[in-house]
Amino acid sequence: MKLLRTLSTSRLVLLIAAVIVVAVAGAAIAVAASGGSGSTPPPKPLAEALHDSLAGPAPEGVTARIKFTNKLFPSGAITGQVGSALMSGASGRLWATNDGRGRLELQSDAGDVQVVWNDTEVTVYDASSNTVYRAKLPADAKSSADQTGIPSVAKISDFLSKLGEHVSLSPAEPSNVAGQEAYTVRVSPKHDGGLLGAAQLAFDAARGVPLQLGIYAQGASTPVLELAATDISYGPPAGAKTVDLGSLTRNTNTAQSSQVRVTGLQAVQAAASFPVVAPDTLVGLPRQDVRLVGNSDAKAALVVYGHGLGAIVVVERQASAGGNNGPMGSLPQVSINGVTAHELATQLGTVLTWKQGEVSYVLAGSVPPAAAEAAARALG
Questions:
Q1: Distance CA 1, CA 97 (A)
Q2: In angstroms, what CA-CA distances link 46 with 43, 170, 173, 231, 284?
Q3: Triad 297, 299, 301: Cα angle to 5°
Q4: Can you tell me whether residue 4 is helix, strand or coil?
Q5: CA neighbor of 124 nearest in space, from 102, 143, 97
Q6: What's the angle, vertex CA 113, arms to CA 111 and CA 116, rounded to 5?
Q7: Quick one: which H or E segment has residue 153?
Q8: Within 10 A of 358 (CB to CB), how many other CB atoms are there?
Q9: Is residue 101 within 8 Å of 117, Cβ to Cβ?
Q10: Consecutive H or E run containing 143
Q11: Partners of 286 in the beta sheet?
């Protein structure tokens, strides 16, 4: 929430187009914005609504009841995961502080899902598979411009005008979410949107806190994913004890920060311990980027074709001994150049994984299965 309160012009995209970024990254959580009962704020231009909400009083924390619905995956697409809260949806609670820390708990018959985060790392525990997922968050390099406080209405308007060159923005629609006066804004890509139809966000009119977040597939009237606050309160719970656990700091002198980035096809091919396949074009999409990612024990080549949300991403790495026994091993099978691949097809995109010789491949894009399969076969 502190981020929302000190949002610079360069960071308004986190409030306006956060769901688009999530869709690209594959960490999608969303909600359909819908009117709730209760009072609504006065109509305002979008830039003014954003400015006034961010300039409101900063809450010390948030406690909320949450409902999560997942319609992204076809029924039975991931064997053994139908009962998981991550796969089928659930209800739960959320706690968040204004220093970037938070916790989300979702309950289902198969077991709870717990998501814990701070400003450097996010951890997800899925009890149904007894699996912990961890990911480092990108460094938040703040310039002096980021410390100048809430951007003016003029700066926000200028940002929205530039953003409007790439996406269509709805007006700020007055609404009421979780009993709070809110504004709802809808964002849809003008081009290179892949299978993404629109994203929708509702935020507290007085505090700038996101209350609803949604992702829609092309032609869909309901969201494929839903995360909604059904009840929310600000500040610590009454009578709660406060325990200072100290601050979490980042060591900038780590070996990871001193690693030399390897980019460009020839440099990546020379540095990789496996053959890197990256044709100039893939199903009509030009190659945009080739780089080596991962640590020394698990390096992989990342190749990007095309622009925007319609891009296709290919990850190549040294194949491990044995067959495809990873988390996608139980997915439907398709043939790619004579070898068996596993495919996950959703309303927002397709993921394929297969092994060819000594190299394993993962191909992902916001494209239909037929297009993803054609791209995989074109890799040769």
A1: 7
A2: 9, 8, 9, 25, 38
A3: 170
A4: helix
A5: 102
A6: 150
A7: helix 153-163
A8: 10
A9: yes
A10: none
A11: 281
| DSSP 8-state symbol, 372 | H
| Model-wide pTM > 0.90 | no
The whole-angstrom separation of Cα 116 and Cα 264 is 36
CB count, 10 Å around CB of 47?
21
> Which helix (H) or strand (E) element contains residue 267?
helix 265-271
φ, ψ for residue 255 (rounded to 5)?
Answer: -65, -30
Rounded distance between C-alpha atoms, residue 233 and residue 211, angstroms = 11
What phi and psi, each to the nearest 5 degrees, are found at residue 334?
Answer: -135, 160
- What residue type is 130 in one-letter code? N
Phi, psi of 319 (to 5 degrees): -75, 140
CA distance 2 to 61: 10
> In 3D, which of 254, 253, 305, 298 has the Cα closest to residue 272?
298
Q: Alpha-carbon distance 92 to 117, whole Å? A: 16
How far apart are alpha carbons 235 and 207 in whole angstroms?
Answer: 12
Backbone phi and psi for residue 270, each to the nearest 5 degrees, phi listed first: -75, -35
**What would the two tokens of residue 315 be?**
């990850």
Beta bridge partners of residue 174, listed in sequence order? 183
**CB atoms < 10 A from the CB of 151, how many?**
24
Strand partners, 259: none
Angstrom distance (rounded) from CA 151 to CA 149:
6
Token look-up 């704020």 returns: 41
The DSSP string of 307-336 is: SGGG-EEEEEEEPPSSS--STTTTSPEEEE
For residues 101 and 60, what is the distance between their CA atoms, to the nearest angstrom? 12
DSSP 368: -
Q: What is the pLDDT along the chain (380 residues), one digit of tens a residue?
A: 443 343 333 333 333 333 333 333 333 333 333 445 689 999 999 999 999 998 988 888 899 999 887 888 765 555 444 457 777 778 899 998 877 889 999 888 777 889 999 888 989 888 877 888 888 887 764 544 344 578 999 999 999 999 999 899 999 999 999 999 999 999 999 887 889 999 999 999 999 889 999 899 988 888 888 888 999 998 765 565 656 555 444 444 444 444 568 899 999 999 998 999 999 999 999 999 999 988 766 789 999 999 888 899 999 999 876 655 456 677 889 999 999 999 989 989 999 999 988 899 999 999 999 999 999 999 87
